[in-house]
Amino acid sequence: MTGPIDEIASDARRVSIPAGRVTKWIDGFADRHGGISTAADSARVQLTATDGSRAWIEIPFPPLEIEGGRLLTSLAVHANRTRRVGVLLVRRGGYAAGVFLGRELISSKVGSAYVQGTTKAGGWSQQRYARRRDNQARAAFAEAAEVASRILLPEAGFLQALVLGGDRAACEATLGDPRLNTLAELPRGPWLAVPDPRLRVLRASPDAFLTVQIAISP
C-alpha cells in the first residue's frame, strides 16, 4: 500500500456505487474538483483534489494488489473481479445460506425457526418465558449452523470471502459452532443489514455486497 492516508472526515457524506462505475466515478470527481492525487492503505484508497475535496474509497474484499504502480486501474480491476463468496444471513426467526459466483447464486438453503416474541408478564412467568425464548433461539442458531455446514462448509476452500447479515449476535452465535471454524476464519465482506432472511433477500444480496462504498468531504 502507498499510505498513510487521512482519517475519514466527520462531515463526510457516504455513497454506494456499482463496482462497474468506479472508474467513471473517479473521473467525474477529478473533473468536478480540479484533478486529484492518490494514496492508499490496506482498507481504503484516498483521492485528494486540488480544491481540497477528499474521497475515501473502501477497498472491497481487501487486500488490493497494485500492479505496475497503477493504483486506480488496479482498484477498478479488483472491484470488478468475479469472486466465489459465501453468504450467511441469520436472525432469530430464520436463516439463509448461499454460495455466489459473481452475481449468480449457485447453491442455497433457506429456512425459518419459531422463537416466541416478548411478553409483558413479570416475576417467575417472565423468567420462564425468557428461558424458553433463549432455548428456542439456541435451537434456531443450531439449525442455521447445520445448514451452513451443508451449504458453505464444502466450499470453504474455494470461497474468497464470507458475507454475513441479519442480526450480528445471531450470526456470531451460529459461527460459534465448532464445525464452522473454517468459515469463521474467512475474510469478511461487508455487513448486510437485512430484516428477513428469505430467498428473495438472499438472491438480491449481491446488490449490496458487490457495491463500492465511498465517503466524500466536503
Task: Describe what this molecule looks like in 3D.
The chain is an alpha+beta fold and 218 residues long. It folds into two domains: 13-81; 84-209, eRF1 domain 2 (Nucleotidyltransferase, domain 5), CATH 3.30.420. It has seven helices and nine strands, in the order E-H-E-E-E-H-E-E-E-H-E-H-H-H-H-E. The chain has helices spanning 22-33, 71-79, 123-151, 168-175, 181-184, 199-204, 206-209; strands at 13-18, 36-40, 44-49, 54-58, 84-91, 94-101, 104-112, 161-166, 211-217. The strands form two sheets. The chain has a five-stranded antiparallel beta sheet with strand order 1-9-4-3-2. Strands 7-6-5-8 form a four-stranded mixed beta sheet. A hairpin with a 3-residue loop joins strand 2 and strand 3. It starts with 12 loop residues before the first strand and ends with a strand.
Q: Would you spell out the secondary-structure blueprint of this structure?
A:
Blueprint: E1 13-18, H1 22-33, E2 36-40, E3 44-49, E4 54-58, H2 71-79, E5 84-91, E6 94-101, E7 104-112, H3 123-151, E8 161-166, H4 168-175, H5 181-184, H6 199-204, H7 206-209, E9 211-217
Parallel strand pairs: 5-8
Antiparallel strand pairs: 1-9, 2-3, 3-4, 4-9, 5-6, 6-7
Helix pairs in contact: 3-4
Give a short synopsis of this structure:
The protein is about 35% helix and about 30% strand.
Number of helices: 7
Principal-axes geometry comes out as elongated
Major sheet: arrangement of strands: 1-9-4-3-2
Biggest sheet, open or closed, and with what strands and sense?
A: 5 strands, antiparallel
